[in-house]
Write a structure and sequence with these properties.
It is found in: Cytoplasm, Cell cortex. The chain is α+β, with helices and mostly antiparallel strands and 1048 residues long. Helices cover 46% and strands 15% of the residues. The protein is built from 37 helices and 29 strands. Helix 18 crosses helix 19.
Length: 1048
C-alpha cells in the first residue's frame, strides 16, 4: 500500500493543486492520465503528452507511475528550492515531478519501515540515467546527514561518472547510452540517514569492446584516456592520442563526437576515483582502462604486426609471460581420454581467441570496479549488508528498455526478455496495489481484463523447452553445431507456439519480412525479428582453458583478482551467458518482489535530440513498448479518481449550503451530503472508509467547473461580511465606486488587528506559564525529600530528566570505560539497570563490528591458548602475532598438486622440514591442510597423506623449538610411521591442524622427550634440551637431539 499522507499545508489547510490545474486542461492537459475521458484512445494519450511537453511540463502521472519526457534542454525545475518545495509534501499536492516520487518513496520507507524500490525504464536516450541521478541528488541534499554521511553521499554521486565512463558508449540513438543494467540499493538507518549503498550490474555489452556498428563507439573510457591522459602517462604506456591507430576503437568509424568532451570527462573520472576509493587511483586504478587498451592495441593498423616494444608494454600491463600468451592465442589445448593435445588455431580462430580475451578482461575488470565501489559504499557499522534490523533500503533499477533495431541479435534478445519479466512484475504489482487499496477501503474488487505475458516468458525461460534451454543444449551438443542448426531446433521444439514465427513457419505475407536466418517473437510490446547469427558464440562466451591458465598467472593485482586459479582447477563447466542472465534476472525479481515499487517511465520525444520537437510516431512506438496504455487500462478499470474525505470536503464544500463554510459532523457524512447535493449518481462514485472513489473523470471535471464558477460569488460574500457596518445599498454603491481600494484596506485592517491580538494573547499566556513554572519548582524543592506527591512531582521529574539528559551526553564510549554519572537517590536502581543495558548494548555492537576474518583469528587464538598457555616456552611470543590464512602463496603450490587434490581445496599451507625415520636426514616439504586430510608435498609429488580421522595425536615439545610429531596408526600399512616435522610457526600450524581435525584434546605437550613410531613397530625418541642456539642433530643412542634456544 503506497504511503498517502494528509494533504495539508503548514497552516492546516488542504491544498490540491492537481485539481486546480484541471481548469487549464484544454491548454496543458491533465496531470494524471487516469483523468483522461477517453482513456482507451492512444491518440488522446499522446495528445495529452504533446500539450504538456509544449508547455515544458515533462512529468505526468498514471496513478502512482511517473511518465517523464526528455526535454533535451536545461529546465529550471531542479534547484534546491524545488527540492524543499517537494519535501514532505503529499504525492498529488503539487505538480508531478521526479522529486515528488522520490519524496513519496522516502516517506513511505520511513513511515511503513518497509523497503522500497524505484524502477526506471525507457529507450536509450530517454533520460533513465539522468532520472536516477536526480533521485540520488534529492536524497543527498534533503536527507539528514553528518560529515561521514556527506562523504557517503559524495561517493554515491561520484560513482555515476565512473560507471558511465566504463559502462556507457555512443550509439546511434544516444551519445551516452548505458550498455549495462544497474540496480543500486541505498541503505538508510532508523533516522532516515543514508548510510550505505550496493550496486548490482547486469549484462554488460562486452561485444562492444571488439565490434561496434557504423556510427557507434567503443566504451567512453578508451577515448577519454587517449584524449585526456597526461603525456607522461601515454609515453609510459606507449600510446598515441589518435584513436584511428587502434582497430578496436574505430570499428564504427566514429571516434569523435561533437556533444562529448572526452578530455573533460577524463578529468571528471580521475577526480571521482579517489573520492570513491583512494586506492583505486593511487595503486593500479589506471590499469583498468590501460590493460584493455593494451589488448586492443595488440592489433594496430599495420597489417596486424606487433612491434616488440609494444608487445612488451602489453605484456607488462597484463602481467603475464609473453611466450605463454602467444602459445595460448595461437593454439588450443584439448583433453581426450585423459591425455592433453595441443592443436594450432587458424587465423579466424586466433582472432576469435584474441577478441574473447579482450572481452573477458574488460568484463571482469568492470565487475572488479563495481566491487570496489561497493566496498566504498558499504555500511561499516553493519555486519550484514544490505539488510539490517535497524535499516531500510530504497532500490534504484536503471535498466535498458525494450530494444528493436534494424538487426536484432543476442543482446536484444536478452534485453527484451528482461523487459518481458519487468512488465509481468509491473502488471502483477500494480494489480496487487490496486486490490489492497480497494480491500482497505471496503470496496468490492472488480476483475480486470489484461494481457498476461507469462506465455511469452515461459516460451523464453521454461526448463528443457524454452529458447534459452534449447540454446544451451545446442552449445553443448557434440559434433558440428551452428546458428542455423539452433534455428532448426527451435522450429522443431517451439514451432507450434503462437508467439513464435520463422521464415519456414510463416505465411506468404510474413515471409517477406522474416529472413531465413531469423525468428520472430510476438512480445507484449510488439513483434521483433532476431537474427541467429552469433547466438551460439555469444552464449558460449568462454575463454580457452589455456588462456585462462595464462591469465591466472598474472602479476597484475587487478587481473589476478579477476582470474581465479579455482576456475582452472574446477572441472565443472560454467553456465552459459543466457542462463547466467536468466538466473541473475530471477534474483532481481525476488529482490523487487520483496520491496514496495514505484515506477518512472522515460520517453524520448525525437531521435535528433532537439528541444521542443515532438515526433508522434516515435512517441507512439515507446508508449506501446513501455506498456503505458495497458497500465492505464488497469488503473482505470475501477475508479479514475480517489481522494481522502477531508481533502475532498475542504475543496468542494462551497458548492453545498449545508457544508459551507464549515462541516461539524463526521467526514463521511459531510462528503455524502455534498455529493448528494451535487447530484452524483450511485454508479458514479463509492464511499470507502477514508476515501471517496469517483469512477468517471467527467464527474470530477463538472465538479471542478462548478467550483470555478462559484468562486466570484464566494469572494463577494466574504467582502460583504467584512463590510458589515454598511447597509446593503451603501455597500453596493461603495463596491461600484472604489471596490479594489476598500477591499484591500479592509483586508489589511482585519489582518493587522487579528495579528496584534494573537501576539498579545501569546505573550500573556507565556507569562502565566512562566509564573506557574517557577511556583511549582520552588514548592518541589521544599518537598524534595518527601514521597512522590503533587507538590514535588514536577521537581522530581525535572531532576530525573536532567540526569537522563546528562547521562545521554556522557555515556561510556567503549566496554573498557567504567565511568557512569552519579544518579539522584530516586534513580539509583534505574541507573544500575541502564548501566547494565548500555554495557550489554556496547558488547553487542562490538561483536557485530567484528569482521568474520577477525572472529576466525580470535577463535584460533583462544584454541591456541587452551593448548599451549603455560605449557610451551614460545607461546607468549606468538600471542601478539596474527595467524595467517596460509604461509604459502598460491603460486608456490604446484598446479599439478592442486589438480591431484581435485575438489579438496587447500585451506592452509606452510613450509616444513621433515626428518627421516632412519638417520633423521632433513628434507624440505610443504604441509598442505584441506578440510578432511593433510598432505606432505615434495615439489610436484604428494609424499604422504594423513587423514584426520586416522590421526592418533600430535606431540609437541615444551621448549621454544618448532618440532612436532603427527602420530599415525601402526596397523595402517599405507603409513610408513609417524611424521617428524619442524616448523618455525609451530603454534600456528598445530592450532590450525587440531581445529581442522577436530582433535584439540589430542595435542600433547611433552617436557623432556617425545616417543614416535618408526616403520614395523619400532620406536624412536626425540630429546629436548636448552642451549645457546637452536640445533637439531642425531644424538647418542640413535635419538634425535633438539637444542632449544633460551628465550628469557
Amino acid at each position: 500500500m503506497r504511503y498517502q499522507g494528509r494533504e495539508v499545508d503548514i497552516e492546516g489547510r488542504v491544498r490540491l493543486v492537481m485539481e486546480s490545474a484541471l481548469t487549464a486542461r484544454d491548454r496543458v492537459g491533465v496531470q494524471d492520465f487516469v483523468l483522461l475521458e477517453n482513456y482507451n484512445s492512444e491518440a488522446a494519450f499522446i495528445e495529452n503528452l504533446r500539450r504538456r511537453f509544449r508547455e515544458n511540463l515533462i512529468y505526468t502521472y498514471i496513478g502512482s507511475v511517473l511518465v517523464s519526457v526528455n526535454p533535451y534542454k536545461e529546465l529550471e525545475i531542479y534547484s534546491k528550492q524545488q527540492m524543499e518545495r517537494y519535501r514532505g509534501v503529499s504525492f498529488y499536492e503539487i505538480s508531478p515531478h521526479i522529486y515528488a516520487l522520490s519524496d513519496n518513496t522516502y516517506r513511505a520507507m520511513r513511515t511503513e519501515r518497509k523497503d522500497q524500490c524505484i524502477l526506471i525504464s525507457g529507450e536509450s536516450g530517454a533520460g533513465k540515467t539522468e532520472a536516477s541521478k536526480k533521485i540520488l541528488l534529492y536524497y543527498a541534499v534533503t536527507c539528514p546527514t553528518n560529515d561521514h554521511m556527506a562523504i557517503l553521499g559524495d561517493r554515491l554521486l561520484q560513482s555515476n561518472p565512473v560507471l558511465e565512463a566504463f559502462g556507457n558508449a555512443k550509439t546511434l540513438r544516444n551519445d551516452n547510452s548505458s550498455r549495462f543494467g544497474k540496480y543500486m540499493d541505498v541503505q538508510f538507518d532508523f533516522r532516515g540517514t543514508p548510510v550505505g549503498g550496493h550496486i548490482l550490474n547486469y549484462l554488460l555489452e562486452k561485444s562492444r569492446v571488439v565490434h561496434q556498428n557504423h556510427g557507434e563507439r567503443n566504451f567512453h573510457i578508451f577515448y577519454q584516456l587517449l584524449d585526456g591522459g597526461d603525456d607522461d602517462l601515454l609515453i609510459t604506456l606507449d600510446l598515441e592520442r589518435n584513436p584511428q591507430n587502434y582497430r578496436y576503437l574505430v570499428k564504427g568509424n566514429c571516434p569523435r563526437v561533437s556533444s562529448i568532451s572526452d578530455k573533460n570527462n577524463w578529468k571528471v573520472v580521475m577526480k571521482a576515483l579517489p573520492v570513491i576509493d583512494p586506492d583505486i587511483k593511487s595503486c593500479e586504478g589506471q590499469n583498468c582502462p590501460i590493460s584493455i587498451t593494451g589488448c586492443s592495441d595488440m592489433h594496430k593498423h599495420s597489417q596486424n604486426s606487433i612491434t616488440e616494444n609494444r608487445c612488451v608494454v602489453v605484456l607488462q600491463l597484463l602481467g603475464v609471460d609473453g611466450s605463454a600468451l602467444r602459445e595460448a592465442l595461437t593454439h588450443k589445448k584439448l583433453t581426450a581420454k585423459g591425455e592433453e593435445m595441443i592443436s594450432p588455431l587458424n587465423y579466424e580462430q586466433a582472432v576469435s581467441a584474441r577478441d574473447a580475451l579482450a572481452k573477458a578482461v574488460y568484463g571482469r575488470t568492470f565487475t572488479w570496479l563495481v566491487e570496489k565501489i561497493n566496498q566504498s559504499l558499504h555500511w561499516k557499522d553493519s555486519t550484514k549488508f544490505p539488510f539490517s534490523k535497524d535499516s531500510s533500503v530504497i532500490g534504484l533499477l536503471d535498466i535498458y528498455g525494450f530494444e528493436v533495431l534494424q538487426q536484432n541479435s543476442f543482446e536484444q534478445f536478452c534485453i527484451n526478455y528482461c523487459n518481458e519479466k519487468l512488465q509481468q512484475l509491473f502488471i502483477e504489482l500494480t494489480l496487487r496495489s490496486e486490490q489492497e487499496e480497494y480491500e482497505t477501503e471496503g470496496i468490492a474488487w472488480e476483475t480486470v481484463q489484461y494481457f498476461d505475458n507469462k506465455i511469452i516468458c515461459d516460451l523464453i525461460e521454461e526448463k528443457h523447452k524454452g529458447i534459452i534451454s534449447i540454446l544451451d543444449e545446442e552449445c553443448l551438443r557434440p559434433g558440428e553445431t551452428c546458428d542455423v542448426s539452433f534455428l532448426e531446433k527451435l522450429e522443431d521444439t517451439v514451432g507450434s507456439h503462437p508467439h513464435f514465427i520463422t521464415h519456414k513457419l510463416a505465411n506468404g505475407k510474413t515471409r517477406r519480412v522474416v529472413s531465413r536466418e531469423e525468428f520472430r517473437l510476438l512480445h507484449y510490446a510488439g513483434e521483433v525479428n532476431y537474427n541467429v547469427n552469433g547466438f551460439l558464440d555469444k552464449n558460449n562466451d568462454l575463454l580457452n582453458r589455456n588462456l585462462k591458465e595464462v591469465m591466472c598467472q598474472s602479476d597484475n593485482q587487478i587481473l589476478s583478482h579477476c582470474f581465479r586459479r579455482e576456475e582452472v582447477i574446477d572441472q565443472k563447466r560454467p553456465e552459459m551467458a543466457a542462463t547466467q542472465f536468466k538466473n541473475s534476472l530471477m534474483k532481481l525479481m525476488e529482490i523487487l518482489m520483496s520491496k514496495e515499487p514505484s515506477y518512472v517511465r522515460c520517453i524520448k520525444p525525437n531521435d535528433a535530440k532537439q528541444p521542443g520537437r515532438f515526433d508522434e510516431v516515435l512517441v507512439r512506438h515507446q508508449v506501446k513498448y513501455l506498456g503505458l496504455m495497458e497500465n492505464l487500462r488497469v488503473r482505470r478499470a475501477g475508479f479514475a479518481y480517489r481522494r481522502r474525505f477531508e481533502a475532498f470536503l475542504q475543496r468542494y464544500k462551497p458548492l453545498c449550503p449545508e457544508t459551507w463554510p464549515n462541516w461539524h459532523g463526521r467526514l463521511v457524512d459531510g462528503v455524502s451530503t455534498l455529493v448528494n447535493h451535487l447530484g452524483y449518481k450511485a454508479e458514479e462514485y463509492k464511499l470507502g472508509r477514508s476515501k471517496i472513489f469517483i469512477r468517471f473523470p467527467k464527474t470530477l471535471f463538472t465538479t471542478e467547473d462548478a467550483l470555478e464558477a462559484k468562486k466570484p460569488e464566494i469572494g463577494n460574500e466574504l467582502c460583504y461580511t467584512n463590510f458589515g457596518m454598511f447597509s446593503l445599498a451603501e455597500y453596493k454603491i461603495f463596491l461600484g465606486v472604489n471596490v479594489c481600494t476598500c477591499v484591500f484596506r479592509c483586508v489589511v485592517i482585519v489582518i493587522q488587528s487579528g495579528w496584534r491580538g494573537m501576539k498579545a494573547r501569546r505573550r500573556a499566556k507565556r507569562r502565566r506559564q512562566a509564573a506557574e513554572l517557577i511556583r511549582r519548582f520552588i514548592k518541589g524543592f521544599i518537598y524534595r525529600h518527601e514521597e512522590y506527591c503533587p507538590e514535588n512531582e514536577y521537581f522530581l521529574d525535572h531532576v530525573r530528566y536532567s540526569f537522563l539528559k546528562n547521562l545521554r551526553q556522557n555515556l561510556p564510549k567503549s566496554v573498557l570505560d567504567k565511568s557512569w554519572p552519579t544518579p539522584p537517590p530516586s534513580l539509583v536502581e534505574a541507573s544500575e539497570h541502564l548501566r547494565r543495558l548500555h554495557m550489554r548494548n556496547m558488547v553487542i555492537k562490538y561483536c557485530r563490528r567484528v569482521q568474520p576474518e577477525w572472529k576466525k583469528q580470535m577463535m584460533q587464538k583462544v584454541v591456541a591458548s587452551e593448548i599451549f598457555k603455560d605449557q610451551k616456552d614460545s607461546y607468549p611470543l606468538s600471542v601478539g602475532r596474527l595467524f595467517l590464512d596460509s604461509r604459502l602463496e598460491r603460486e608456490q603450490i604446484n598446479l599439478k598438486v592442486i589438480q591431484t587434490l581435485g575438489s579438496d581445496k587447500v585451506q592452509y599451507g606452510v613450509s616444513v622440514i621433515k626428518y627421516d625415520r632412519r638417520g633423521f636426514k632433513p628434507r624440505p616439504r610443504q604441509l598442505l591442510l584441506t578440510n578432511t586430510f593433510a598432505v606432505l608435498v615434495d615439489r610436484t609429488k604428494i609424499k604422504q597423506r594423513i587423514d584426520y580421522a586416522a590421526l592418533r595425536g600430535i606431540s609437541v615439545g615444551s621448549l621454544s623449538d618448532g618440532m612436532f610429531v603427527l602420530h599415525m596408526p601402526t596397523e595402517d600399512n599405507k603409513q610408513k610411521g609417524d611424521a617428524v616435522l619442524h616448523c618455525s610457526h609451530v603454534i600456528e600450524v598445530v592450532t590450525k591442524l587440531a581445529m581442522m581435525a577436530n582433535k584439540t584434546s589430542y595435542v600433547n605437550i611433552n617436557p623432556g622427550s617425545i616417543r614416535f613410531t618408526v616403520a614395523r613397530g619400532k620406536e624412536g625418541i626425540i630429546d629436548f634440551i636448552r642451549g645457546s642456539e637452536l640445533k637439531v642433530a642425531k644424538g647418542k643412542r640413535g635419538h634425535l637431539l633438539v637444542v632449544s634456544q633460551r628465550l628469557f
